[in-house]
Amino acid sequence: MVYKFRFQKIIDFIENEKQKTLVDYEQAVQEFERVATKLYECLKKKEELEAKRAEMLHDGLSIQEMRHHQQFVANLDQMINHYQKLVMLKRHEMNEKQALLTDQNIEIKKYEKMKEKDYQNFLLKEKTDEMKELDQISLTGYTYRRN
Predict the structure, then answer these.
(1) pTM for the full predicted model
(2) How far apart are CA 74 and CA 77, in angstroms?
(3) What is the pLDDT, as a whole number, of residue 140?
């Protein structure tokens, strides 16, 4: 007799969903990394500008240059705030996808455990059926030889 697990279609469906979720998770990670890199670049640029401003103040600069520099830093601060919010949002999305992936892994493991137990029961039943059949054959042979 061939073994067939009654919930195999459910396992296949969950596996398929897990693969889709894995792709979504990987995309979320890439998006998070992209936004975090942009934030890092903005912060680094601001740091460089602050160092340059300190150097320019030491050497002396005009009010026009100072206003221009200050406006540039203000715009950079707005970009940094924007990217910080985006990083938080992308991190949240990434964590949600990871939690969903973990839940699907747990669910698959539960079904696999059920499948394993069901298969062991199948083997046990098959062995008992085989033993019954052998007993029946030996009983038939015994009664045939007695007559």
Answers:
(1) 0.74
(2) 5
(3) 87
